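Curious: explain these tokens?
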Amino acid sequence: MKTMIAAFAKRCDMVVAALNEMDGVSCPSPEGAFYAFPDISKFLGKSVNGRRIDDSIEMCQWLLEEKHIALVPGAAFGAEGFIRISFAASDDDLRTGLQRLKEGLAQLS
């Protein structure tokens, strides 16, 4: 059990740090869950390839289709402008997903 707790703490720190390093994203440290809940509201209303992203549902759908990362829209929790990211995955998968998220958000203008 201690090994798993340490692994989740390490992943949490890695995910939150990577999110907070992304321009336009802010993410507090979670308090006991294995999900990060970053604010991506600065990217809503932006477009990519003629497609406008107006809410967290559209953002998550676009990121799934174009960047192949599965996220949960904050709207599902009454928190529009946020997305939920699980860090119950391997370090490598998390790094890959975070890089894809960073690239995807950078494409929006």
